Amino acid sequence: NNATIEPIIKQSFPLLKDSGYKRNILTALAVSRKLKNGSQAPDFSLEDEDGNKVNLASFKGKVIYMDFWFAACMPCHKLFEETKAVKKYFNLDSNVVWLTVSIDSRDIWENALKKFDIIGYHVFTENKFRDHPIIKSYNVTEYPTTYLIDRNGIILNINPPHNSDELKREIEMALRTDSN
User: Fold this and answer.
1) Which residues contact 143 (CB under 8 A, 6 or more apart)?
2) Is the pTM of this model over 0.90?
3) Environment class of 4 (CB within 10 Å of its CB; exposed 0-12, middle 13-18, buried 19+)
4) pLDDT tens per residue, range 1-31
5) Are the C-beta atoms of 6 and 29 separated by less than 8 Å?
6) Helix (H, G, I), strand (E, B), or coil: what is residue 103?
């Protein structure tokens, strides 16, 4: 049971914050509780650019492309470029949300948004970085990590395609499903 094991691991390794052994165990735990296509997307509470709190219910009825990133992550920047055409294609569709979740501090995050002109609805982990609960609940172990969530909060794809045409098709299919 993960709820029982995780506190034991944290108690066993309090002084070894960067222990490779600890990381391996925590990664194995993350894999064991990994979200799957068809799973209910975990709820979250994050702060947006205006200081408003948002959660999963804030986007009910919308298709969400969720992207976890940080400013110094070159693969994250590459993904922003790869998805730019799809974001522009759905630009006028209010039923599609491009939710970018930064793990940076507020100042680094805000500077990165200006510098890189990232399209989307922007939130950050409130200066909790990788320790924010959303990181664990969405099993984020590498960056970027992306999810495609349907209008009812169900995960459609735990690793949506980076290819623009394929991603566009998946979002269009998700838009055709009914929302409760």
Assistant:
1) 68, 69, 70, 73, 75, 76, 103
2) no
3) exposed
4) 455 566 666 666 665 555 666 666 666 665 5
5) yes
6) coil
What residue type is assigned to position 173 of the chain?
A: M
**Roughly what angle, to the nearest 10 degrees, separates helices 2-12 and 20-32?**
170
Amino acid at position 53, single letter = K
The residues that bridge with 157 in the sheet, in sequence order, are 148
Of 75, 45, 38, the residue nearest 59 (C-alpha): 45
Residue showing tokens 């990994």: 34
Strand 96-102 relative to strand 121-124, pairing: parallel
Q: How far apart are CA 94 and CA 79, in angstroms?
A: 22
- Any idea which residue has 């993960």 for tokens? 2
